[in-house]
Write a structure and sequence with these properties.
A 6-stranded mixed β-sheet has the order 2-15-14-18-16-17, sandwiched between helices. Strands 1-12-11-10-13 form a 5-stranded parallel β-sheet, with helices on both faces. The protein has a 4-stranded antiparallel β-sheet with strand order 3-9-8-5, with no helix packed on it. The protein has 13 helices and 18 strands. It starts with a strand and ends with a helix. It is globular, with a radius of gyration of 23 Å. It is α/β, with parallel strands linked by helices and 463 residues long. The longest helix has 38 residues. A hairpin with an 8-residue loop joins strand 6 and strand 7. Bound molecules: iron/sulfur cluster (2 copies).
């Protein structure tokens, strides 16, 4: 069934779509001689290595154990020898703990996790446990551990599951291809997530520039779960952002500083739904994903199923290599992606795209004065006032920026995209968020220390 009553979130922009790889079918990337697998490819604590240099491993074997509530298991992408437990360069430019695997060329699989073919009758807690065992994280970019996302916080209730098939970032087509080529697996993953959450209100949201995927999922959904509805959304960036998507699908507004659970919703990416199906039904942990490799300097843009730990350089080689000059290498899409400074950076669970821009496509920001035109206010989907905020931040008035809700900024880039003065607005927001975040953490630590001192004093007095 297709859902028709949908709403439009505030603001947003319409960048050129440039989804040139939308017709390119997913191809499995060939086996490499070596994989550099980060132990920190999710939000939260890095996984703890459970292998050491010299150990032999199999494909799908656990090599990193989740080290806290917000963490995720890591599995080997192939069979071979652990060359080193070391550090590698991550997409954000920091060093990450990693396990380097030298492939033995055999690609021998480890014993799978016990498949749960009868998942419809399996205890939801067992299904949730499997999500954690398989190391599933949000694959739309945030990499938030899915087990945590599907655990309903105490005092909250969930009535709606929204599956994010929006893929509103220009250039990226990995989710589109996945919905088109593996609708059954995606839908099974959706139904499993719904069973874990015990919800019957299930919406798969897809922008209407993916008409073939909308048609495919609308046709297949009733064969898996009659509660699944497909919503065809008008194209508008950043519709795939969690809070905006919740509004579009339900007209509910997540409060400032709040979470989707505050409005009884959980949002999950289609890639995570696919991984969930593989983990539960096939017993396969998450060690590979579909990634788009694209951009003007790329000879043959397309979509590949890469194993985690594949260097960007190998992905670019598979896409025919580089023609002409490269102005910028980005992990993700052009709006919210991260500039990467080395092709040695490995693909991780959240790498939705590898994008190369030609030198003439790289926008040069300026520090020109704000024109007070107000266009950024109209574009900001969080209803902030980016022009005023950026002036406060330039003058290091971070307390003012905090009072003007800079922490609500989702770093979508709409303001910078629309600004006629070419001001580096997102960079300003990131700087303020880092400053305010550090202040809040210091305040929390000081309050905790004071509470501990008070409790120790009270104990002394009791003695
Ligand atoms: S980057 Fe932040 S301030 Fe700019 S439009 Fe997006 S949410 Fe608003
Ligand atoms: S769009 Fe740019 S110039 Fe216009 S108000 Fe915002 S920051 Fe100022």
């Amino acid at each position: 069934m297709t859902l028709n009553h949908i709403f439009h979130f505030y603001g947003g922009v319409h960048p050129r779509e440039a989804k040139v790889s939308s017709k390119a079918a997913i191809v499995a990337a060939p086996l490499l001689e070596q994989y550099t697998v980060p132990l920190a490819m999710h939000i939260g604590a890095p996984a703890t290595p459970v292998v050491k240099a010299g150990d032999m491993v199999k494909r799908g074997q656990l090599i990193g154990q989740a080290s806290g509530f917000v963490s995720a298991n890591i599995h080997s992408p192939t069979s071979g020898k652990v060359k080193a437990v070391d550090f590698c360069l991550g997409a954000v430019g920091t060093q990450l703990p990693c396990v380097v695997i030298e492939s033995d060329g055999e690609d021998t699989p480890a014993d799978p996790l016990p498949p749960m073919a009868d998942w419809q009758d399996t205890d939801p807690n067992q299904l949730l446990k499997r999500v954690g065992e398989a190391g599933i994280v949000g694959m739309g970019g945030a990499a938030f551990p899915t087990q945590v996302k599907l655990s309903i916080p105490p005092g909250k209730s969930i009535d709606t599951l929204i599956i994010n098939g929006v893929e509103c970032e220009p250039c990226l087509t990995a989710d589109h291809r996945l919905m088109l080529e593996a609708p059954q697996k995606v839908l099974q993953g959706v139904a499993i997530a719904a069973r874990i959450l015990n919800v019957t209100n299930i919406v798969i949201a897809i922008e209407n520039n993916k008409a073939d995927a909308i048609k495919q999922l609308s046709k297949s959904a009733p064969t898996v779960d009659s509660n699944i509805r497909v919503a065809a959304l008008q194209v508008c960036y950043p519709q795939g952002s969690e809070k905006q998507l919740i509004y579009t699908a339900t007209k509910r507004q997540v409060p400032s500083g709040g979470l989707p659970a505050d409005v009884h919703c959980v949002v999950m990416n289609v890639g995570s739904a696919f991984a969930l199906s593989e983990a539960v039904i096939d017993g396969k942990p998450l060690y590979e994903r579909v990634t788009t490799v694209t951009g003007t300097p790329i000879a043959s843009p397309g979509n590949w199923r890469f194993r985690v730990g594949t260097p960007f350089a190998e992905a670019i080689k598979l896409a025919g290599g580089i023609q002409g000059k490269v102005g910028k290498l980005i992990s993700g899409g052009p709006m919210m992606g991260m500039t990467v400074y080395s092709q040695a950076v490995p693909i991780v669970k959240s790498t939705s795209g590898i994008l190369l821009l030609a030198p003439e496509e790289v926008f040069q920001y300026t520090s020109k004065a704000c024109l007070r035109c107000g266009r950024c206010n109209d574009a900001c989907p969080m209803q902030l006032m980016p022009g005023i905020l950026s002036t406060q931040i330039e003058n290091e008035r971070f307390d003012d920026a905090q009072n003007w809700n800079v922490m609500d900024c989702i770093e979508c880039g709409c303001c910078a995209f629309i600004c006629p003065a070419g001001r580096p607005l997102v960079q300003h927001m990131r700087r303020a968020k880092a400053e305010v975040g550090a202040k809040l953490r210091a305040q929390k630590a000081a309050a905790q220390k004071a509470a501990e001192a008070k409790s120790s004093e009270a104990k002394q007095e009791t003695k």
